[in-house]
Every structure is written in structure tokens, then in C-alpha cells.
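HUMAN: You are asked to prepare a plain-text protein record giving the amino acid sequence and the C-alpha cells, both parts labelled.

ASSISTANT:
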Amino acid sequence: MKKILFILMVIIVSLFFFSFRLTVLPGFNTKMTLAGLGIFIFSLNCITQRKVVFTNELFVASLIAMMFSFICFYSVTTNGTNDLFYSSYIVSMWVWLGGAYTVCYIMYRIHGYISVKLVMKYLIILCVLQCVIALLIDNFAFMRYFVDTYIYGEDSMSEENRLYGIGAYLDIAGTRFSAVLTMIVILLSYDEEIRRNKKYIMLYIIMFVFITVVGSMISRTTGVGAIVAFVYLIYATGVLSTTFKFTNLRLWSILIALTFLLVMICIYLYKNVPAAQGLFRFGFEGFINWLETGVWRTRSTDYLQNMWIFPTSLKTWIIGDGLLLNPSNPYKFYMGTDIGYLRFIFYCGLIGLSVFAIFFIYIAVAGYKRFTEDKHLFVILLILQAIIWVKVATDIFLVFALFMCIPMVQIHCRNTNKNFRKHQINNGIG
């Protein structure tokens, strides 16, 4: 029974973290479905307990998100455009929160508790599973046919010459893999249960390398998370300090040995498996070009170098042009730039970009203060968000949303348990 519940929980987390639509049900969206269920559960808990539980962090974050939405709406209406994508960000925020509440609530009911570490472990397992699914889709025609036929939009990935999972593709996967890679390093650095067990250390290092390698074949943005995670591991384990501990020496010894072994396996596959060679060349294009030509370059970095296009008017700098996409060609970016910071400036100006940045700074600080044992996670996620915006205009709020819902779920579930026990005593039960 426990295994069945665990599998069910992984599926639910996947429906949230890598949401998708079904071709047979065009109106069905896993994220929206979980959000609707979350609103229902939240409302039912509030009615049962006769009070609304709403944390201060969520209230303030909602106000900032509402301010950002208003600025975007003002930019759109002032410029006379109809590009309302970020004008409804407050709605998007609460859709993610509704879905996150469902995930956290079910997780609590299955395990009897919920914590930052438990959520992180589920996300790590999920990302490993998505990488496995991506390899299966690439190697088995019936898997590819099933996913391409029934998962909306996945068939277009077949033409990209890259791996993809179920709802895990392009920068959507890359940003989320990046966040999860930092979580693995957090656990390796501070979780004593893992650090005391050599097998656990080896398992988490293997998962880290596996997600990095296969994740890069899905989206090269995964490499950003790997680099940030590696730099943090150096800091957290005190490699550059005089207080280097023996437990950290064991961690690094296992890390170096396993990484060397896994790299040798990758080199063997690259040289002897033609199908794998193309995937490796895509995922590690910069590194391979560096080895072959002495110059680190990729098609993505070449494109980004030509995308540093800045506004020419003061009005655009301040409030933006109200456009994310090119109005004459919705399949291209406005002003031909995909750089996140510039896309926000062109859309809602420095005012909008600043408020959006404050939004993420606030929720990171709120997480840092509330979850003191795991506080470094929120600092790393904030740094990761800042770096990702250099490459693409997407955010990782859904990651923060899971942790922001933990306090509310804990309060609701504990109050429900107390009320149930009180009911038993009043009725002479138990």
C-alpha cells in the first residue's frame, strides 16, 4: 500500500511540476485541475475549522504580484496593445499556489507530515523519472507515438532533435531541473541522514550527474543549475577554508570518483553509440566545441550575443511598449530579443521589472526566515532566478509556491486532527 501511495504522490507532483494538456481533452490542463482541487480543499478546511488560514508572506507577496500585474496592464493599455500575458500574473500566481496546496495537502495526508526536505526529495525523484521517460521516448517508437499522440504539443518536440519527457521540454524543463540540482546539493551539504550513509551519498551524486547529463539533452539551461549547485557545494563544504571536515572529504572523494566513472561512461557512449552522439553534441555543444576548436561557443550563446537590443526612448525604459511578442509575427519575440531582462523592460519598463524582481526577493527572504534549517535553498533559488533571466524570460515561482504552501497545510491538517480528536472525545469514541 505504501508503494502505491508513493507512486500516486510522484504522479501528482509531476502533474503540478511538469503540467500538460491532453489532445483528447483540449480544455484539460493538469495545473488548472490541481489548482481547482486546491481551492476546493482549502475552502472546505476553512469552513470546517471556521476560520481562514492565510500567512502574512502570501498576503504581502500577493500585493506585490497585484502591483506588477497593474503596471503591466497600464503599459498594455497606454501603448494600445493586446498583449496581456503578464497583466494577469496575479491570477497565474494563485493558480500555481492552488496546485501547490493540493500537492502539499495530499503529501501531508500520505506521510503524516510535510517539510521542505520531503518536498525536495519528491522533486528530485520526479526529475530523475522525467529523464528516464525522455530516454524511453527517444529509444522506443511506441512510447514516442503514445506521448506525441496524447500529450498536447509534444509532437513538435520530435522535430527539435532533442530529448523531451511528459510536460518536460525546452526551458520549462531546464529551469526546473536547475532548481532541483541545487536541492540535491543542499541535501548533500546539510542532511545528516544522507551524509552519514555512504550509499545515500553515492545515490544522490548519481542522480545529480544523471539529471545534469540527460537534462542538458532536453534543455541546456540545466547546465546553469549544475554550475550554481557546484559553486554552492564548494562554499557549503568549506573547500576553500581552513575548517574542512573529514565528512566533507569523504563526500568529495565519492563525488570525484563517481563523476570520473560516469564521465568515462558518457565518453564511451559518445564514441560508440551514433544515436547518443547527436544528443551529447546538443547537450554539451559548448564543451565539445571547446575541446575541438579551443573556443567555447554554442548556437544559443551566438544568438544571445546578437540579442542585446536596448530601448531607444525614455518612455520604453520607464513603462515599456506593452509587447512580449512581435505583433506582426506572434512566433517571434518583440524587438528580436529573448533575453529575460530586456523582454521585461520592453514589456513593462524598468518599473515593472523592478517590482517583479522585488516579488522574488521578498518570497526568497520570507522562505529564508521561515525555514531556517533550509534557508540557503531560498538564497540559491533567488540567485538562480537572476541568472536564468539573462537567458530567458521565465520564472520559477512554482518552486517557491510549494514551500509557501507548507505552513498553511501544516496548520490546516493539525487543526483538522485536533477537531477530529475533540469530536471523538465528545462522543465517547476512543
In short: Residues 419-430 have pLDDT under 50 and may be disordered.
